[in-house]
Write a structure and sequence with these properties.
Elements lengths: L1 H8 L11 H7 L1 H9 L10 H25 L10 H26 L9
GO cellular component, one term: membrane
InterPro entries: Vps55/LEPROT
Protein name: Leptin receptor overlapping transcript-like 1
Length: 117
């Protein structure tokens, strides 16, 4: 989040359009959380509900990477955002989504016994 805010608030950028990726941060994990909540057997090899949720989640992730690039490549002489803001937003995206992946991997392992001794 710090990188996204820096990409918006630094004096040379001063445009808050890249902050819209925060909406994708909020929306991205929701389909997967809902699908995992309503699956009967999470260990099965094929679950259409979970696969659709992962597809929708990937759409949100790709959109959050595409939005700053599209805003920086505006055809006018003055693009909507500068490339520096785009790079800061993309770096923030990588960190946020790696954190979300770590969250899902950590809390997916519910049946691990930590008191093995």
């Amino acid at each position: 989040m710090t990188l996204v805010i820096l990409g918006c608030a630094l004096p040379q950028y001063e445009v808050w359009w890249p902050f819209f990726v925060v909406l994708f941060y909020v929306l991205a994990p929701i389909p997967t959380i809902i699908a995992r909540r309503y699956t009967e057997d999470p260990a099965s090899s094929s679950n259409p509900c979970l696969e659709l949720a992962i597809f929708i989640t990937i759409g949100f992730v790709v959109s959050s990477f595409a939005l700053p690039i599209v805003l920086a490549r505006a055809p006018d002489e003055n693009p909507v955002i500068h490339w520096g803001a785009c790079y800061l937003t993309l770096a923030g995206n990588v960190i946020v989504y790696l954190t979300l992946v770590g969250f899902f991997v950590t809390f997916e392992q519910d049946d691990v016994d930590y008191n093995m001794w």
